[in-house]
Write a structure and sequence with these properties.
- It is built from twelve helices and 32 strands.
- With 559 residues, it is an alpha+beta fold.
- A four-stranded antiparallel β-sheet has the order 8-9-18-15.
Length: 559
């Protein structure tokens, strides 16, 4: 069979037909593009199936899209982020997280779909948008430092947070407080959940369950503590050229061996275990705490006695050997603390006897404290644990989001007064937490709450010379002053705080039979606090030092 052959004319005709078809297709596409372009040329809205942050902006003008996104964002911002753990709730504001967003760029990108290319690509992008969804992500930024600080602040306020063992020196005794098992926040997971919530514009509910991990308190390491507290005695002195003040140092060491100190801890633990067992046996034998008479005829209550004993069962007292130096900084005279660097005063109701007692006692413990250069001051370590035995009394305080009676209640006013004096001295604040509710004695953003074993107020002496804290409380006035030596690089410090939003109080209706008292309640607030440094009247810097959230205290109406 022969091969099929085409004549030159037939080949030429076939090529011509193909060229005509291609030209036809190009012309058809061009004509279609022109017609499609003319049809859409007057359309000034965002095209179909276009989304920003998974929110449809199709058929909207640029201004309408911005307005829609802004409303959703402002609703989320107003609702805040509510972090929850069991009965604990804590709001976090968007300002507190340092959130910034850019609607303009996202809307411009949305509007540019079908408009930024040539006539062909524009038309086909418009055509494809009828069938394929296009989502544009907003540029939302969360300051990493701010979110980490917020999470750390939440952890410090969790009611069941793990409390590590702590210690302080009380006279010639080392007092060690055993830690308490609890939980700690899974910070990476919470951080991820907060970022997801902020970015989810389809969910204006800001509630997030705090992810926690069971965490046991570390065992007491007596050798490590002994090494940390051990110091050799040193005399105070002043050197010249350059002028330097050297603070005295007490010699401190355990008055017993490490082995004997460990025995004190072990024996106390064994004693507590036995007491717990005896308490249970006594409770059973006496039918849950019946009263027994001793030989004098006085009434004892076994459960009460054991309850009091159990209050301090996790505290261990180990004797110390203290060696005092011959020369103290106080004996050097005013030359060591010649200048008043800053002072701050707050007022309180002196008729509240217990609160006045606590403030006076705490002020006496704080007064005369000297902080060396580079040394970190701790309010809790300086004041010590607030107990009835140490002279503190019950007074109103904030705890777990409630107003309660607490031993040592009111001394947060002194820590807040000290905080302001430290700010005005331009010291380096290393730990500070705001109250759950607004306080009456300092403006919003200028308080510093404390709680033994968990929440502390700390600062570091970042000056060249030691500083001395003088404090006094009484007759409704608490004053803290900081003395030292002025330096050439000192600046004038201005502290300015402002309320950025009000959190309205809720109204709760409670039955009269519940035993709850009526109260008017208080609004909450968010605030920003700035520190401005001036040199010869000229602003050197202005820094945002804190963003704080204060919860509203519900109004209670009895029915």
């Amino acid at each position: 069979m022969g091969n099929l052959e085409f004549s030159p004319d037939e080949v030429r005709k076939e090529k011509i037909v193909k060229v005509i078809i291609v030209i036809g297709l190009v012309v058809a596409i061009f004509v279609f593009s022109i017609i499609f372009s003319l049809f859409n040329g007057g359309y000034d809205k965002i095209h179909k199936n276009v989304y920003i942050q998974n929110i449809s902006v199709s058929g909207m003008s640029q201004e309408e899209a911005k307005e829609k996104l802004s409303k959703i964002y402002e609703t989320k911002k107003l609702n805040k982020i509510i972090l929850k753990h069991n009965d604990f709730e804590m709001p976090i504001s968007y300002e507190q997280l340092g959130i910034t967003r850019n609607f303009n760029d996202a809307v411009d990108m949305a509007y540019g779909i079908g408009r930024k290319g040539n006539i062909v690509t524009n038309n086909y992008r418009i055509l494809f948008s009828c069938f394929l969804r296009k989502n544009i992500n907003l540029e939302i930024n969360i300051d990493d430092t701010s979110i980490n600080n917020a999470i750390n602040d939440v952890q410090s306020k969790l009611p069941d947070v793990t409390i590590q063992s702590s210690y302080y020196i009380d006279g010639s005794n080392l007092v060690i407080k055993k830690g308490v098992d609890g939980v700690e926040i899974n910070k990476d997971e919470l951080k991820s959940n907060i970022i997801k919530n902020v970015n989810d514009f389809n969910n204006v509910n800001g509630e997030i369950e705090i992810p926690v991990i069971e965490k046991k308190a570390d065992n007491i390491d007596i050798k490590k503590i002994a090494d940390e507290i051990k110091k050799e005695p040193k005399d105070a002195y002043i050197s010249k050229d350059p002028l330097e003040v050297h603070v005295e140092q007490d010699g401190v060491e355990l008055a017993c061996s490490i082995e004997d100190a460990q025995k004190i801890i072990d024996e106390k633990n064994e004693s507590n275990e036995n007491n717990d067992g005896n308490a249970n046996n006594n409770g059973n034998a006496n039918n849950g705490g019946n009263e027994n008479k001793n030989s004098d005829g006085n009434v004892n209550n076994d459960n009460n006695a054991n309850s009091e004993e159990s209050q301090d069962k996790d505290e261990y007292v180990i004797p110390l050997k203290i060696t005092h130096p011959s020369v103290t900084v106080e004996s050097l005279g005013n030359e060591a603390f010649a200048n008043k660097l800053a002072t701050y005063t707050t007022n309180y109701d002196a008729s509240n006897v217990n609160r006045n007692n606590n403030l006076v006692l705490a002020s006496e413990k704080l007064n005369g404290t000297i902080v060396k250069p580079g040394e970190e001051f701790s309010y809790n370590k300086t004041i010590g644990e607030r107990t009835i035995a140490s002279g503190f009394k019950e007074a109103k305080a904030y705890a777990g989001g409630k107003v309660v009676l607490d031993v040592g209640g009111g001394i947060c006013q002194l820590s807040s007064t000290l905080y302001n004096a430290a700010l005005l001295t331009n010291l380096d604040i290393t730990e500070r937490h705001n109250h759950y509710f607004l306080t009456s004695y300092v403006p919003a953003g200028r308080d510093a709450t404390v709680s033994w074993g968990s929440v502390d107020f700390k600062f570091k002496n970042n000056r060249k010379y030691p500083i001395k804290i003088e404090s006094k409380a009484g007759d409704g006035v608490a004053t803290v002053s900081i003395y030292g030596i002025k330096q050439d690089d000192d600046n004038t410090v201005l502290i300015d705080s402002k309320v950025t939003s009000i959190i309205p109080k809720k109204v709760e209706y409670v039955k009269k039979s519940s035993g709850v008292s009526e109260r008017s309640g208080e609004d909450g607030a968010t605030s920003e606090t700035y520190k401005t440094l001036l040199k010869n009247g000229i602003i050197v810097s202005k820094t945002l030092i804190s963003t704080d959230t204060y919860n509203a205290l519900s109004q209670i109406i009895l029915q």
